[in-house]
Amino acid sequence: MKKIIIAIDGYSACGKSTTAKRVAEELGYAYIDSGAMYRAVTLYFLDNHVSITNLKEVERALEKINIHFENISGANTTFLNGANVEKQIRKMNVSNHVSEVSTLAVVRHAMVAQQRAMGKRKGVVMDGRDIGTVVFPDAELKVFMTAEMGIRAGRRQLELLEKGQALNLDEIRENLEKRDHIDATREESPLRKADDAVILDTSGITLEEQVQQVVALAKEKM
Ligand code: C5P
């Protein structure tokens, strides 16, 4: 069977990462969480007081940033300059700044170059906002995930609670709406459905159904 690239894009908290991770497991593919990379850059900028309005400062900071992923006890784990930052990058202060950081062309170019290198050998499932449109425009399978806002906010609340963060629904909803707006309206590679992407609305289906639908689509392309 031929190895392919599966690009999964869509709005925040539609279940992209969970689906992508499971699909990768089923197919024996690598899973790459591109959002985690933008989150790691944001964490670095916050911790090191990098001003995103100062391009020179941003460029200098990017040179010092090294991101890699490791599988720790079956969980995809993000490392920033050798430190495990998986927990920190999911916190609300990062979520509240990541979309602004992600509007910067220099940041995007640096991340896209790394993402392309990670997908060079194919056999990858990558999720994000611009994977099917910019990172891998020739991906064999492109999926664009959507879900109703109420459902997305509820799912994210549960996910954060499982990680020990209790947040109210309004705060989560506000963050999702703000990020979606910035992501979809930015100048540099805005979030949009690729013309050849399959739409997957996850509002009324289970995670298992989402996974099986994507796996079935992938097998048609292999
Ligand atoms: O996927 P996740 O919700 O963790 O992504 C966090 C943020 O990173 C998004 O809201 C978006 O601003 C940015 N992002 C992006 N391009 C990607 C992946 C994520 O701009 N490919």
From TrEMBL:
Q: Source species, please? A: Fulvivirga sedimenti
List positions binding ATP.
10-18
Q: Name one GO cellular component term.
A: cytosol
The answer, when asked if Cytoplasm is one of the entry's keywords, is yes
- The EC number of this protein is 2.7.4.25
Q: Which SUPFAM superfamilies match?
A: P-loop containing nucleoside triphosphate hydrolases
- Which intervals hold domain Cytidylate kinase? 6-219
Q: Which GO terms describe its molecular function?
A: ATP binding; dCMP kinase activity
Protein's UniProt name: Cytidylate kinase
Q: Which UniProt keywords apply?
A: ATP-binding, Cytoplasm, Kinase, Nucleotide-binding, Transferase
